[in-house]
Specification:
There is one protein chain. It is built from five helices and eight strands; from the N terminus they run E-E-H-E-E-H-E-H-E-E-H-E-H. It is of the alpha/beta class. The strands form three sheets. Strands 5-7-6-8 form a four-stranded mixed beta sheet. A two-stranded antiparallel ribbon has the order 1-2. A hairpin with a 2-residue loop joins strand 1 and strand 2.
């Protein structure tokens, strides 16, 4: 609620509802979850979430800028014990219900220790020394023939209790990556992200929001 990059971003209005409403509304539509929680240091958020979402108050010390994401996740697992956790961010309003269901349905603990959503890239990458990373300047390939790269889009993560408690990780050593569309990758962290989301909301179908 006291985000420095975009204050109160989780309750900013998007299509007539607070931003946090959208992810909770979608989580309620998928199968495989026992309970849905919001983990926040202020009870003000309770005014903006559906009645059947469980509020868990976190220590305000975890609001500090130097706190890392995995510290926050571990603190939640200290309070709420579960075999598996599905972590979703309120800042990704266009993540589809079908994608969230896919994260759960495709998880096989015999093959994977975690699942997360990603954006797929097949394009020309450069490092901070102005050198090509994944192609040869003397023999430029077609982009469709290039090996893809994947970037976490922070939409959804599925991991087990031991992974976060013992290894302090939300992604294990044998993860399954779930590619999602460009629209689903919209992540509202800055004002320009929010303005972009608002500019496209009227063009989006109910499949997304």
């Amino acid at each position: 609620m006291n985000n420095t990059r975009l204050p109160n971003k989780n309750i900013l209005q998007l299509n007539g509802k607070p931003l946090c409403f959208w992810i909770f509304d979608k989580l309620k539509k998928i199968s495989g979850l026992n309970k849905i929680y919001v983990y926040c240091s202020t009870e003000e958020i309770k005014k903006y979430i559906p009645d059947d979402i469980i509020f868990v108050k976190r220590d305000s010390k975890y609001d500090a800028n130097e706190i890392k994401a995995n510290e926050l996740l571990k603190s939640f697992s200290d309070i709420i014990k579960a075999d598996y956790y599905l972590l979703c961010h309120a800042t990704c309003p266009y993540l589809k219900v079908s994608t969230l269901q896919k994260v759960i349905n495709n998880f096989d603990p015999e093959k994977y220790d975690s699942v997360f959503t990603v954006k797929k890239y097949q394009t020309f990458l450069w490092d901070n020394k102005n050198k090509p990373i994944n192609f040869n300047l003397d023999d430029i390939p077609r982009t469709q023939d290039m090996e893809p790269f994947y970037i976490e889009n922070v939409g959804a993560y599925l991991y087990n209790y031991n992974e976060i408690q013992i290894n302090n990780r939300r992604v294990g050593k044998k993860p399954l990556l779930i590619p999602v569309s460009d629209i689903e990758c919209v992540d509202i962290d800055y004002l320009e992200d929010y303005e972009f989301a608002k500019s496209i909301e009227n063009k989006m179908s109910s499949t997304y929001i």
